[in-house]
Amino acid sequence: MGDRAHELFCLPTRVKGGGTTTSPPAPALRATGAALSILAVLLLAFVANLGPLGDLRHGRDQKVAHSALRAELANATAPVGPRAEDGEPLKPGTPVALLEIPQLGLRTVIGEGTTSEVLAAGPGHRRDTVFPGQAGVSIVMGRQAAYGGPFAHLDEVRAGETFTVSTGQGRHTYRVLGVRREGDPQPPVLGAGQGRLTLITGDGRPFLPGGLLRVDADLVSAVQPAMAPLYTTGTLPADEKPMALQTSAWLPLVLWGQALVLAAAALTWIRVRSGRREAWVIGVPVLGALGFAVADQAALLLPNLL
Question: Taking the domains of the chain in order of start, what are their residue ranges?
Answer without folding.
Answer: 78-238
